[in-house]
Design brief:
- It is a single chain.
- The chain is an alpha/beta fold.
- It folds into two domains: 292 residues, Aminopeptidase (3-Layer(aba) Sandwich); 154 residues, 3-Layer(bba) Sandwich (Glucose Oxidase, domain 1).
- The strands form three sheets. Strands 1, 2, 11, 12, 15, 16, 17, 18 and 19 form a nine-stranded mixed sheet that branches.
- The protein starts with a helix and ends with a helix.
């Protein structure tokens, strides 16, 4: 009992000491830097265990950001009315363990000749096979003959007339076809491609595809020749699959200035969680707090929201998007950009904030990437004041952060960062190494940028060419 009381006293003293040190730290900061420090002290704390996407700890971070957006006065623009949270689905990882396929008397080799797709569920089905090809109009309701398909395994052609570069459209077309036959009663689906176009890559590795509830496999072009002339027969199909479904959440708030144009200001708030350091001799599991990557961008986003919410001179609408699952593959920003209204008719530009907390680590320089995404950006940057640091203008913007899905939708972007440093993705990326005065200087610079962009008659999109993208890799790394 005495030991317990001593331990409890120690814990209380430690908490008091921590709060005192926190208060002392804030006393030395300006009001803006103190708010940045307060937000980062929460987001980059050990208690949030590195904010890995889809974990309970990351959800706590999302809840904190949502509460801040509410206190700022942002309107919720999440997945349902009144919410700042917008969940999306990640099938990550999808592990295909085993599959068996027999059509009439022919057995196909798993992985070599066929494989389960991301649409598939686990299960074993046996029954009559029917080949329906690609002749049905899947767009029209009730186009399929339910009696013809119900209770059968369907052999379905996924040849597409969509351009190969439009993977999203191809995926949507395939998914709509598969759903149509399943809704008509198919107990299994075998996909093949009668054309010479390659569509296999859209069937595997999609983070957003949900199972349609029956086994769905794809048979490669050459093995399909064994049954090309088959119209009907018997089939047995087995799929064993481990599907890990994660549902992280973006946090979205906005300011509605009744404009027909909207600016998206984004920063990812997830990090890599508890993992092994990529550097050093200690390879044990450690918390990676990600103070710079990217609690710095998230706290800067919140501070910009506080400024914009109290600035009645802004004419555009402003969406403040804290993206999840950037570290998993930009899945949060991809999910956001999958919305039909996110296009270059509605979105004026996207401003990305990723790692803005280490001004001075690589010299007193910030990098502005994506300058070539609009012909107006270079002139805007040239006119902005930045007495305390220099600006490296980079035309390209390689696809390693949340601006990338916006570029693919022909939306101009600007990406600000203070760059990589030796503590990147290590346990040493902690709050004590953050330059809060530098963050405050960058905030002032970004506010100038936003005002200048508001004064432009238009912000036309311009394609970044491959040479500019290649050069940007060299300039960044």
């Amino acid at each position: 009992m005495i030991k317990f009381k001593i331990c409890l006293l120690f814990v209380l003293l430690n908490l008091i000491c921590t709060q005192w040190l926190f208060a002392q730290k804030i006393i030395d900061l300006s009001p803006t830097s103190a708010r940045l420090y307060r937000d980062m002290a929460v987001l980059a704390s050990d208690s949030l265990e590195g904010r890995e996407a889809g974990t309970l700890s990351e959800r706590k971070a999302a809840d904190y950001i949502a509460k801040q957006m509410q206190s700022i006065g942002l309107l919720p623009k999440g997945g349902h009315e009144g919410s700042y949270l917008s969940a999306f689905r990640i099938n990550f990882p999808v592990i295909f363990k085993e599959a068996k396929l027999r059509i009439n008397s022919i057995d196909f080799k798993h992985k070599d000749e066929f494989g389960a797709t991301d649409l598939s569920s686990a299960g074993t089905v046996e029954g009559e096979l029917i080949k329906i090809g690609n002749s049905f109009n899947f767009i029209e309701p009730n186009a399929l003959n339910n009696n013809q398909i119900n209770g059968k395994i369907v052999l379905l052609d996924i040849a597409s007339k969509v351009k190969l570069t439009e993977n999203e459209a191809i995926t949507n077309e395939i998914v709509s076809k598969v759903k149509a036959v399943v809704e008509s009663g198919a107990i299994g689906v075998i996909l093949y491609n009668s054309s010479r176009k390659t569509t296999e890559d859209v069937l595997f590795g999609s983070p957003f595809t949900e199972s349609v509830g029956v086994p769905v496999v794809y048979i490669a072009r050459l093995p399909f020749n064994k049954i090309r002339k088959v119209k009907s027969g018997t089939c047995s199909l087995t799929v064993e699959i481990n599907r890990t479904v994660s549902k992280p959440e973006n946090v979205i708030g906005w300011i509605d200035n009744k404009s027909d144009k909207t600016v998206v200001i984004g920063a990812h708030f997830d990090h890599v969680g508890i993992t092994r350091s990529r550097t050093g001799d200690d390879k044990s599991l450690q918390i990676h707090n990600g103070a710079d990557d990217n609690a710095s961008g998230t706290t800067t986003l919140l501070e910009l929201a506080r400024w914009a919410a109290n600035n009645e001179t802004l004419k555009y609408n402003y969406i403040f998007a804290a993206f999840s699952a950037e570290e998993k593959g930009l899945f949060g920003s991809k999910a956001f950009c999958s919305r039909a209204w996110v296009n270059n008719q509605n979105i004026a530009y996207m401003l990305n904030l990723d790692m803005v907390g280490r001004l001075g680590c690589q010299g007193d320089t910030i990098s502005a990437l994506g300058v070539a995404s609009s012909e107006v950006w270079e002139n805007v940057l040239d006119k902005l004041e930045h007495p305390d640091f220099s600006v490296k203008k980079i035309n390209g913007a390689p696809p390693f952060s949340d601006h990338s899905p916006f570029l693919k939708k022909n939306i101009p972007i600007m990406y600000f960062t203070t760059g990589l440093h030796p503590d990147y993705h290590t346990p040493n990326d902690d709050i004590e190494f953050i330059n809060f005065k530098g963050m405050e200087e960058i905030l002032a610079y970004i506010r100038q940028f936003i005002r200048s962009a508001e004064a432009l008659p238009e912000i036309p999109f311009h394609n970044i060419n491959p040479i500019q993208q290649t050069k940007a890799y060299l300039q960044t790394f």
